[in-house]
Amino acid sequence: MPERRNARRPSGSGTAPAVRLRRLRRSAGLRDWVAETGVEVRRLVYPVFVRPGSGPPEPVPSLPGIPRYAVADVPGLARELESEGLRSVLLFGVARTKDAEGTDASAHDGVVPEAVRAFKRAAPGLVVATDVCLCAYTTHGHCGVVRDGAVVNDASCERLGEVAVAHAESGADVVAPSAMMDGQVARIRAALDAAGHEGTGILSYASKHASAFYGPFRDAEGSTPSFGDRRSYQMDFRNAREALNEMDQDVREGADLLMVKPALTSLDLLARARERFLLPLAAYHVSGEYAMLKAAVAAGVVEERPAVEETLTAIRRAGADLIVTYFARDVARWSAEGP
Ligand code: PBG
Predict the structure, then answer these.
(1) Given pLDDT bands bounded at 50, 70 and 90, which one contains residue 1?
(2) Domain residue limits at 200
(3) How far apart are CA 272 and CA 276, in angstroms?
(4) Which of 91, 133, 156, 287 to mutate to test ligand 1, by most ligand atoms within 8 A of the CB atom?
(5) Helix (H) and strand (E) counts for the chain?
(6) Per the domain annotation, does 27 fall within a domain?
(7) What is the reported pLDDT for 245?
(8) What's the total number of domains in the chain?
(9) How far is the CA of 284 from the centre of ligand 1 (A)?
(10) Predicted confidence (pLDDT) at residue 6 exceeds the cutoff of 60
(11) Are 222 and 95 in contact (CB under 8 A)?
(12) Nearest-atom index, ligand 1, CA of 136
């Protein structure tokens, strides 16, 4: 009884010739009508590097098109981003001074708090998130406090709490801890609440692999470690269950959003996290992934717009609600230009 067998099949799984999947691919209108995902501009988060001092935006050779801005340039930039249709930024600061504990990271007059205030004044509607880490502010370039040559966990969490409070005080909507210390989300939540910032959200870099794709970012930030590497705190890229465990922990510690990075090497994790967690999920398409595509475009190997759209759509399809990407302004421009 073929009818009965068909009835038990999930819909859409009949056979040709009755089923012809090409029917819905016959025109752009039909294809758009049934498209399952897309890269909406509202889902994109634009990373912004802010540096001390004045002067024009400083190019970073390994990160083409993404300069370091002086705080004085922030109001103009904020208004431009808003007029381009972008909805959110993730701020990174270049240190004024470095020391062993990364003191400048939690200074209330540091570049990030100054930039947050400037963003909020110039474009109050933009969502402002700030990266919470120590690596750009420490002389050794590690993401936490170093004692006897090792990155110590709990003292680092304490410092990250202070950094988060300084950012919240300046008006950040969301703080984004990226140091991969155990318990950092809980510690930051407690520090924010104690300082009266129970409304400030935490976007946790929950699953962050020790990766070869952070190089251009470290050039922009001046945050390459002076000894060793980050593998005693960032995750081993061979592990997926551990990544889910990291996310589980951060949910229980009070994270409001979870982030996975790098994006393209974590598509499996995004898909699994989408099934498992109810919180909004972000993916960070990191500096090396961006620079790699830019280099391929410059070499004439791929065409920029279709290659970027395909890449970011795959990240969405895997399960990301939000994508942090250096291509955010390009996508906004293309979407204004039309298909
Ligand atoms: C800080 C931090 C890093 C990135 C985001 N936050 C660098 C690192 O861990 O070395 C990388 C982002 C990118 O490559 O675009 N800990």
Answers:
(1) very low
(2) 37-259
(3) 6
(4) 133
(5) 12, 11
(6) no
(7) 98
(8) 1
(9) 9
(10) no
(11) yes
(12) 1
Question: Two tokens at 110?
Answer: 């540091």
Buried b (16+ CB within 10 A) or exposed e, 252-290: ebbbbbbbbbbbbbbbebbebbeeebebebbbbbbbbbb
Going from the Cα of 220 to the center of ligand 1, the distance in angstroms, rounded, reads: 10
Known catalytic membership, residue 261 = yes
Rounded Cα gap, residues 129 and 176, in angstroms: 7
325 in a structural domain: no
Q: Determine if the peptide bond prior to 124 is cis (ω within 30°).
A: no
Pairing of the two strands 174-177 and 127-132: parallel
Structural contact between residues 75 and 121, judged by C-beta atoms closer than 8 angstroms: yes
Residues 264 and 311 sit within 8 Å (Cβ to Cβ): yes
Instruction: Write the DSSP assignment of 171-196 as a string of letters.
Output: T-SEEEE-S--TTHHHHHHHHHHHTT
Q: Assign residue 170 the CATH number of its domain.
A: 3.20.20.70
Q: What is the value of pTM for the model shown?
A: 0.95
Alpha carbon nearest to ligand 1 atom 11, residue: 214
Name the residue with the closest Cα to ligand 1, atom 12. Answer: 286
Mean predicted confidence (pLDDT) in 252-269: 98
* Helix, coil or strand: residue 253: helix
Token readout for 46 is 């634009």
13 Cα–ligand 1 center, Å: 44
Residue 247 lies in a domain: yes
Residues with CB under 6 A from ligand 1: 131, 133, 135, 143, 178, 214, 217-218, 230, 286-287
The predicted model gives 311-319 an average pLDDT of 98
Mean pLDDT (whole number) for 194-211: 98
Q: Which amino acid is at 88?
A: S
Let me know if residue 318 belongs to a domain.
no
| Per-residue pLDDT band at 4 (split at 50, 70, 90) | low
Selection from 103, 309, 323, 141 nearest residue 219 by Cα: 141
Choose, from 98, 120, 261, 294, the residue flagged as catalytic: 261
Residue 187 CA, ligand 1 centroid: distance in Å: 21
